[in-house]
Amino acid sequence: MHILIADDESIIRTGVRRTLQQAYPNLFVHLAASADEAARILAEQPIDIVLTDILMPGTDGLEFMRLSRRKYPAIKWIVISAHSEFAYAQKAMQLGAKDYLLKPIGKKRLLELIAELASEVAEERSAMEEGKLLRSSQKYMREGIFQRLASGQDIGQLDINSLKERYPSFHLVMVRLEPGARDAGLEHFVVDNVFGELLDKQDGFVVSYDRNTLIGVAAIESEEAFGVLLANLRGYLGRYLKIPFHIARSEKNIEIRDVPEMVRKLSRSMSEMAEERDGASAVKVKGGSDNKAIEMALQYIGAHFREESLSLERIAAVVYLNPVYFSQLFKQKTGQGFKDYLIGLRLEEARQLLRESDLKLAEITERIGYQDMRHFTQVFRKRCQMTPTEYRQDKKKTLNT
Questions:
Q1: H helix and E strand count, the chain
Q2: pLDDT tens-digit series, residues 152-196
Q3: Domain end among 282, 305, 324
Q4: What are the pLDDT digits (tens) for 333-377?
Q5: Which residues of 72-104 are buried (b: 16+ CB within 10 A; e: fewer)?
């Protein structure tokens, strides 16, 4: 059995491994100091159980767990944390964690839990129905054939009729992560899971083309529905990815044998987009396309500023711009940085709610996109030179005089 321990504290990782190997010498125990390392190990090893810390650099443990469940549904999860907050434990259980262990981890409880989960793993393996295995094999065979086809490799005697029958018409969507100094391993993992989750609902699938590129097959007849899929994809990737990314799409196609040429066209399109973007970043361009991009961004922000997940990366993805270039352009065109502009919108909404409603401060905090009421109060005081409660009381006095 294979167990993965994901924790940024070396003493925790090695301590848990020592405890497990002393009790179960035949265990294979893998260690990761971040979600990035953990994602690589999941892709390379047949992991059965994951123990993950919540607070890790980059993607936290709960988000890593949420993103992993679609691709690795059989894995058993144990969440470990130095924090006893009920909200953490509740979210962990909602995501399917088997338990929530507080640091320092008690050896007795840890070993009991591993024994329970090892028994579950063994039972599930032996109880697997042949039909499930067959369906799984068919799925991987279909995706494997498509991957070879997209890469221009010889498919030999492999039968593509099942692909033709299942996808009489389809779109291709290419997602490319911008290569750079940062390892794209975790981001590739995120795209695979987020895009795959969206395509699962449409009887589609996603495959890896290379270390920076993934290709999705979307079996959607309606252009409107396909547009919704693309918008959702940009929004989610803008929220989760930490590096720039780009999306290209094909027209609807009905011939599966055209896939290699379609992929080549999408790849060329990506390269041309990169050249244009790099040229735009090198000099300050005062063109209509930039003005249009900022106009679209302002409309999108106006519609979504109450959402806590709204980020610069998400907006940049919506208007097809590199986040760094978009940030510079936004400030150049509006005279404000994105963060300051967003805070301004949220606080204007908050002032209106404080003046015109009897909503509690916690409700107002949530309505304008903040989770933490204390943080909202600090931001409000810094901008308005008074607390939200003082502002409400002051406005009531003004109305009564």
A1: 17, 9
A2: 776 655 567 777 788 888 889 999 887 654 556 778 888 888 888
A3: 282
A4: 888 899 999 999 999 989 989 988 888 999 999 889 888 899 999
A5: beebbbbbbbeeeeeebbebbeebebebbbeee
Note the residue count of the chain. 401
Of 99, 127, 155, which marks where a domain is finished?
127
Write down the mean pLDDT value for the chain: 81
Say whether both 151 and 186 belong to one domain. Answer: yes
Return the residue matching tokens 């925790």: 12
Nearest-angstrom CA–CA distance, 342 and 136: 45
Q: Is-contact 2 46, C-beta < 8 A?
A: yes
SS3 call for 81: strand
Q: Is 208 helix (H, G, I), strand (E, B) or coil?
A: strand
Distance CA 292, CA 200 (A): 34
In the three-class reduction of DSSP (H, G, I as helix; E, B as strand; rest coil), residue 309 is classed as coil
Same domain for 141 and 121: no
Number of domains in the chain: 4
- The single residue listed with the structure tokens 């070879």 is 148
Q: Are 245 and 230 in contact (CB under 8 A)?
A: no
Phi/psi of residue 117, nearest 5 degrees: -70, -35
Q: Which secondary structure element, helix H or strand E, spans residue 378, and what is its range?
A: helix 373-384
- For the stretch 202-221, pLDDT in tens is 778 888 888 888 999 888 87
5-16: average pLDDT? 91
Residues 27 and 4: their CA atoms lie apart, in Å, by 11
40, 150: one domain? no
**Range in 5-14, 17-26, 217-226 with the lowest mean pLDDT:** 217-226
For residue 24, give its domain range.
2-127
Of 32, 17, 33, residue with least CA distance to 110 = 17
pLDDT for 165: 81
Tell me the CA end-to-end span of the chain in Å, nearest whole number: 74
Q: Distance between CA 123 and CA 104 in Å, rounded?
A: 30
Kindly state whether residues 103 and 176 are assigned to the same domain.
no
Residue 110 · residue 101 · CB < 8 Å: yes
Q: What is the pLDDT of residue 77?
A: 94
Q: Are residues 151 and 272 in the same domain?
A: yes
